[in-house]
Design a protein that fits this description.
Blueprint (H helix, E strand, L loop, with lengths): L3 E6 L2 E5 L5 E4 L14 H23 L5 E10 L9 E9 L4 H14 L1 H8 L4 E8 L6
Parallel strand pairs: 5-6
Antiparallel strand pairs: 1-2, 2-3, 4-5
Helix pairs in contact: 1-2, 1-3
Length: 140
């Protein structure tokens, strides 16, 4: 795994992963940037959402939990000015024939196994996500 950060101008930075993927980060105008991309702090929350959703999908497939229409929404509320990240709360919505209790248990397992969630835990940033299940299943 590799990360390369190349300054472009102002607060705009090009991030590359060494596998031909790139993303631009920047600050909003009120913080001196031009909003050419998401902020690095927002990118950390996006990384958590992507990693948790991916971990959930992997576990669900291994345990043969049928689902469709998965959407994960995370929100962070800054606790104190000295602490850049407060608690993260979210909702995982999906369609499944499984009951909410089963999906919530799988979600709890995904939170434990998710490598980015582990980094948030190590930084003492609480992450809580509630499963919302709509009945029904479309083929995956």
């Amino acid at each position: 795994m590799q990360a390369v950060a190349t300054w472009r101008k102002g607060h705009e930075i090009l991030l590359e992963d060494g596998r031909a993927h790139a993303v631009v980060v920047d600050l909003p105008p009120e913080e001196g940037g031009t909003s050419a991309g998401t902020t690095p702090l927002e990118l950390s929350l996006l990384s958590l959402a992507g990693s948790l959703a991916s971990t959930f999908v992997s576990l669900a497939r291994k345990r043969r939990l049928d689902f469709s229409g998965l959407t994960l929404v995370l929100e962070e509320k800054t606790a104190l000015p000295a602490n850049p990240v407060g608690a993260v709360h979210g909702t995982l919505r999906l369609r499944s024939r499984a009951d909410r209790t089963e999906v919530q248990a799988m979600l709890s397992s995904a939170l434990e196994a998710c490598p980015v969630a582990r980094m948030f835990r190590d930084a003492r940033v609480p992450v809580s996500v509630l499963a919302v299940v709509s009945q029904g299943q479309r083929p995956m």
